UniProtKB/TrEMBL annotation:
InterPro entries: Dockerin_dom_sf, EF_Hand_1_Ca_BS. It comes from the Archaea. It comes from Methanolobus vulcani. Residues 1140-1162 are annotated as: Disordered. One of its GO terms (biological process) is polysaccharide catabolic process. This is EF-hand domain-containing protein. The lineage of its organism: Archaea, Methanobacteriati, Methanobacteriota, Stenosarchaea group, Methanomicrobia.
Length: 1211
């Protein structure tokens, strides 16, 4: 009992603490925003690069295959930087990405071998290809141009183990620039043999708080040390450029150390021979490992602390005695040799002199760096991705930049056993190590999202000049030079990740897509959707200053592509050569800024109770209209080539069960619904009464353009097993005269539910009640054929027979009939007087003009139902009347008079009339009801006279009404937060079929594929409320329109397409104008609807962006469009999210399961409260004791632990 009381009190106490903590931390939880970076498998950037522009250009084919982030570069303006004996500067570039299966090590290491390839002449005089392994001495001879044997090339033969782990990759490029910030190339020596290039390069590890290289200070005196370029060439003749770099000559006291990249040298002492100083004792340490006291194994998850796992700097051999006169010693991972460096011993130290006082030595340390090499410093891997200079000489060339790639494992260390190297990891909320100068206060150049003029470029493309002068008139004059874009004293970049996961919304499905591959086999197929990449890591990037006080601190390049982005392809004056054009499609690119980072490009939280989904549209891009006659799957399949070109939302369909008969059999009806947004919709879209429509449609009407939300509804016949079926009008097909219902040969045996009436609850069609008695009325199929000889199927639809009193009305689509009276001739009833009204317009008392913005209330603008002519007298015996927009005729209907009625009888009391109403619907036609446009985009049945479904498209203008003057029709608009009108049954409570995001099993879960659908859709029905959908606003996404300045333009030789246009000095830049399209969006709010099996995806968005890495079973589908499900209760963005708690101590790692996180789900919440309460008051050995809640590890869980638990609660 005591234990229960304690736990009960604890829960009360924790609840009180929780309330206080939530109040105290509410503001902190909104402190920072996060950015997702998606990665997949081992997909990374090219290694090594072969294109000199690849490390800088986000559109380059060798850039990272998946998402990556481009940083604003830093500039180094140390006065000791000089290139070719000229005072210079350096520019340092950085990019970052995420590789779930990074191969470690990536490059060449000391266990690998090299083959010399050459040609051998045989005894018969013939020549054959041959190869042999190179020895250490031969590699040294090659390195110093002393090798005498023939070489065609040298091939790398990897001979090391490979390991795979999840890494964050950060890449740094150190480039030489002159005092005007133009790129320059450096050589090592002047003509006199003097070394004349000195620069800053990260060569030291002085900060134990960061793994890997973190400083320029080699000797620990607190002063940055310069690096000297000693030699440039292809040291191992593998076809890639290499460099040798070193320190300046340094005075080092006995006992002191100097470090240079992966080795440390310590002066042990100075020694005499024959009374003269001639030797120095040195200790050489390999510094590839970190001194971390434990090792978390990435394979087993064990924490190990044996000596082999706690390494740190390791002395290689004993004391090394080096002769001052010869004075050079080189070292590798395990070896030291008194000779010049080569690949296996690339690091070296050279002793130049010893002090007379026996306590000082003058020495130089240095190292060869090979393109494609991997080396390690302080538990970090560095891959030499590019060493570039335009001079391709294999010996004594030049260098413009060096690119290092640093892959850092996450959550567990990686033990490269055959190398005896442990790569140290970073954890959630631990600062990711960055190379200098980004890990220290530095000067940043704002190269991202700089104001620019529009006249130079309004599409995505490169801009630059055909000379080395770079003050581009396209850039705002306040920022068109590097000097103007410098920002001083920028804080160290503190970047960390907080989470990783698969985006579950990318792995989903859509069931019951019409499958017409065999028109004689009615059936469905379902689409298994696997949008890739789906694995992401969530990063927090810091807020940075902006030179223009704007936003856009980082540039995100996604693996998704934007095929609709228009690319520059004809700027000969601005690009280096035709090969420098962007190869379509453009990747999705946008800027990211901590300031605006809570706003996702698709899914956003509007308020605590409401989330929004953006739907992007562009220009007049729409779905095909009408759908092609041979494409019956067009209205249903999101990957169909005739589906909407831009974003669209597929909504779960409705099922109507009652009183539906198809071919005289009880049946059901399934109603499909999808929605999209067209900024420049052509109104009207289809054929209207002013056009010539027989045989070939010749439009004669005016066209208007406005911004419309488009709803599309498909009314399909299905049987009682929910399988698609087709229906005909009568047992023999079409009646011989289907409007003369008095003389039908066979009964009409197909009737169903169709929206034909307007009850003023919303604009447009909203009911199936034709006579206003409050009861829905079925629609009959009178006939199906091609009425206007245009090769497309049309239908005649009509009502059942109504008994209508004098003064009452019946409506059917765009016309209303009112019975005015019954009249005699020769003593007999033979005529009925009716009034016919055109119902295309709404009775709104005002009209907001979409062009002028004026509110008009003149009679021509306040229309409502309009009587056509006077009273119409209709003969009871012949009894057929048809009507159009302005005309009435006593004849059967046609395209221009498509609506019809027939009087089939009168009442004996002279106050009732029996009549039927109906209308022709033509594929490709546009008609209007109550201020709404309806476009007949498909009428389909596999036979000549049958119907399977009818598809109606309803484009609704937004913010302003649209006056179609030549038609005398006003299309009524909807406003922000006004419910968008939808057709029945979605505008009231309805029975929903859950076809989206079901629990599924497919034969290939990794691919997007179609499968035959034999599921029982009738079992997946749920009651759903009326679909209340609205939009909150619209805007251009400004982050899609941006730029990246100063991309290396390595165009020595020709410019444009003229080979005789030569540049003498080709060291220059280009910049990339970025216009990701579509950029115009409307934000929609969708209601939450019930789910059949617990999966939460209520809607399916199909984006115009494509996912080239998505594998499809059918190659013709590739590249597959980006597709994801949307749950209105989940406002989590696909890329950006807000409300991430700021970390108090960013240097304190958070291991996989923290104290207090009882369920290991990486948050400490109410579930953990309950578990803590169960464990409270126990001690080690008790059944309820749990070490995860023993916060101080003292063997019991008491008040001290409660206080500690309260501190971490809700984190």
């Amino acid at each position: 009992m005591k234990m229960k009381i304690q736990r009960g009190l604890l829960l009360v106490a924790v609840a009180l603490v929780t309330i206080c903590m939530i109040a105290a931390t509410a503001s902190a939880e909104d402190d920072v925003n996060s950015l997702r970076i998606y990665g997949e498998d081992g997909l990374s950037a090219a290694f090594p690069y072969t294109d000199p522009e690849a490390p800088f250009d986000p559109m380059n084919n060798e850039s990272p295959v998946k998402d990556f982030v481009t940083f604003n570069p830093a500039v180094l303006e140390n006065t000791d930087i000089f290139v070719n004996n000229i005072d210079s500067k350096q520019k340092v570039f950085a990019t970052q990405w995420f590789v779930p299966e990074y191969t470690e090590p990536t490059g060449m290491v000391w266990l690998d071998k090299f083959d010399r390839c050459f040609e051998r002449t045989l005894d018969d005089g013939s020549v054959e290809d041959a190869s042999e392994l190179l020895t250490d001495d031969e590699l040294r001879e090659i390195s110093f141009d002393e090798f005498q044997k023939p070489i065609l090339k040298v091939e790398w033969i990897p001979d090391h183990n490979e390991y795979t782990w999840e890494d964050v990759v950060t890449e740094f490029t150190y480039m030489f620039v002159d005092k005007h910030y133009e790129p320059v190339s450096a050589t090592s020596k002047s003509s006199t043999g003097a070394y004349w290039t000195s620069f800053l390069f990260p060569v030291a590890d002085n900060d134990d708080e960061q793994i890997g290289l973190d400083d320029y200070d080699m000797n620990g005196d607190g002063v940055d040390d310069m690096v000297v370029l000693k030699k440039v060439g292809d040291f191992n003749r593998d076809g890639y450029k290499d460099v040798m770099i070193s320190s300046d000559s340094m005075v080092v006291s006995v006992g002191d150390q100097v470090q240079f990249l992966d080795h440390i040298v310590e002066v042990e002492g100075i020694y005499y021979t024959d009374g003269k100083i001639d030797r120095v004792g040195l200790k050489v340490y390999y510094n590839g490992n970190n001194e971390n006291t434990t090792y978390l194994d990435h394979l087993s998850g064990e924490v190990l602390d044996t000596p082999e796992h706690v390494l740190g700097p390791q002395q290689i051999g004993g004391v090394q005695m080096i002769n001052i006169e010869q004075g050079i010693l080189s070292a590798g991972r395990h070896t030291v040799t008194k000779d010049r460096p080569q690949f296996y011993e690339p690091w070296y130290v050279q002793v130049e002199a010893a002090g007379a006082g026996l306590d000082k030595v003058v020495l130089t340390v240095g190292r060869q760096l090979y393109t494609r090499e991997t080396f390690f410093v302080d538990g970090a891997e560095y891959d030499v991705a590019m060493i570039y200079g335009p001079d391709d000489s294999w010996y004594n060339g030049d260098v413009k930049y060096i690119t290092l790639r640093n892959p850092v494992p996450e959550h567990a260390d990686v033990f490269l056993e055959d190398l005896s190297v442990i790569k140290r990891c970073v954890y959630d909320e631990e600062i990711i190590p960055l190379l200098p100068p980004f890990n220290m206060e530095h000067t940043m150049i704002d190269d991202i999202n700089i104001p620019h003029t529009e006249y130079c470029c309004d599409v995505t493309g490169y801009i630059g000049h055909d000379s080395s002068t770079y003050e581009d008139e396209c850039i705002d004059s306040s920022y068109d030079t590097v000097k103007e874009r410098r920002i001083f004293n920028v804080e160290p970049l503190e970047i960390y990740f907080i989470n990783k996961d698969d985006e579950s919304r990318f792995h989903t499905d859509l069931y019951e897509i019409l499958d017409e591959s065999d028109i004689y086999d009615e059936g469905w197929k379902w689409l298994h959707i696997r949008t890739m990449p789906e694995f992401y890591k969530e990063f927090v990037y810091p807020e940075l200053p902006d030179i223009d006080d704007g936003t856009g601190d980082f540039l995100v390049t996604s693996s998704f592509t934007a095929p609709n982005s228009e690319l520059c392809d004809d700027w000969e004056a601005y690009v280096c050569n035709p090969e420098n054009y962007i190869i379509p499609p453009q990747r999705l690119m946008f800027t990211y800024d901590q300031e605006t980072g809570a706003d996702d490009i698709y899914v956003n939280e509007i308020d605590d109770d409401t989330n929004g989904l953006r739907v992007y549209g562009e220009g007049d891009m729409d779905a095909e209209f009408p759908y092609s006659a041979d494409n019956p799957e067009g209205p249903f399949d999101p990957l169909n080539p005739e589906a909407p070109e831009k974003d669209f939302v597929t909504i779960n369909p409705a099922l109507i069960k009652a009183a539906i008969v198809v071919d005289n059999e009880d049946s059901y009806e399934k109603v499909f619904f999808r929605q999209w947004f067209v900024p420049e919709y052509t109104e009207p879209t289809g054929m209207v009464w002013l056009d010539d429509v027989f045989g070939k449609w010749v439009p004669n009407h005016n066209e208007y353009v406005w911004e419309d939300v488009v709803n599309e509804f498909s009314y399909m016949f299905i049987d009682k097993h929910c399988q698609p079926i087709s229906g005909i009008a009568t047992p023999d097909g079409n009646p011989s005269c289907f409007w003369d219902l008095m003389n039908l040969d066979d009964p009409l045996w197909t009737y169903f539910w169709f929206p034909v009436a307007d009850d003023d609850t919303q604009i447009g069609l909203d009911s199936m009640d034709m006579n206003g008695d409050g009861i829905d009325d079925p629609t009959y199929l009178f006939a199906a054929t091609d009425f206007n000889n245009d090769g497309r199927k049309d239908v005649a639809l009509g009502s059942e027979e109504f008994v209508v009193g004098v003064g009452d009305t019946v409506q059917f689509l765009d016309h209303i009939v009112e019975v005015e009276g019954i009249y005699y001739a020769d003593g007999k009833i033979d005529r009925v007087a009716v009034k016919v009204y055109y119902n295309g317009n709404d009775e709104n008392p005002t009209y907001l003009d979409h062009l002028s913005g004026e509110v008009l209330d003149t009679p021509e603008h306040v229309l409502g139902p309009q009587q056509i002519g006077g009273v119409q007298m209709i003969n009871v015996e012949q009894g057929i009347l048809s009507a159009g927009r302005h005309t009435v005729t006593m004849d059967i209907p046609d395209f221009y008079n498509p609506w019809a009625m027939q009087v089939t009888g009168t009442g004996v009391a002279n106050d009732k009339v029996v009549l039927r109403v109906g209308r022709l619907l033509h594929t490709g036609e546009t008609f209007f009801v109550d201020g709404a446009e309806y476009d007949v985009s498909m009428i389909y049945g596999p036979g000549d006279y049958d119907v399977k479904y009818i598809t109606i498209r309803n484009p609704v203008p937004e913010h302003r009404d649209v006056f179609l003057e030549d038609l005398s029709v006003i299309k009524r608009c909807v406003y922000d937060e006004e419910i968008i009108p939808v057709l029945p049954p979605f505008n009231g409570p309805y029975m929903m079929i859950d076809d989206i995001d079901l629990v599924h099993s497919s034969s290939n879960e990794d691919k997007t594929c179609y499968y035959s659908d034999f599921t029982a859709a009738c079992d997946r029905t749920l009651d759903a409320p009326a679909l209340e959908i609205y939009f909150t606003g619209k805007d251009d996404e400004p982050r899609f329109h941006t730029n990246l300045l100063e991309i290396l333009r390595e165009c020595c030789g020709i410019v444009g397409v003229s080979s005789d246009t030569v540049i003498d000095d080709c060291e220059t830049w280009k910049w990339l104008h970025i216009s990701t399209m579509p950029e115009f969006y409307k934000e929609f709010v969708y209601p939450d609807v019930p789910d059949y099996d617990g999966n939460s995806g209520d809607y399916l968005l199909t984006s115009s962006f494509t996912a080239p890495n998505t594998d499809a079973c059918d190659d013709s589908l590739e590249p597959v469009r980006l597709m994801f499900t949307y749950d209105p209760t989940d406002g989590t963005g696909l890329y950006m999210n807000g409300g991430v708690p700021a970390i108090d101590d960013p240097d304190e790692p958070v291991v996989d399961q923290r104290k207090g996180d009882g369920d290991g789900d990486e948050d400490i919440d109410l579930d953990d409260f309950r578990a803590f309460a169960d464990a409270y008051g126990t001690e080690e050995g008790d059944s309820y004791y749990d070490v995860i809640f023993d916060m101080d590890d003292d063997g019991d869980i008491d008040l001290d632990d409660f206080r500690a638990f309260a501190d971490v609660y809700n984190t």
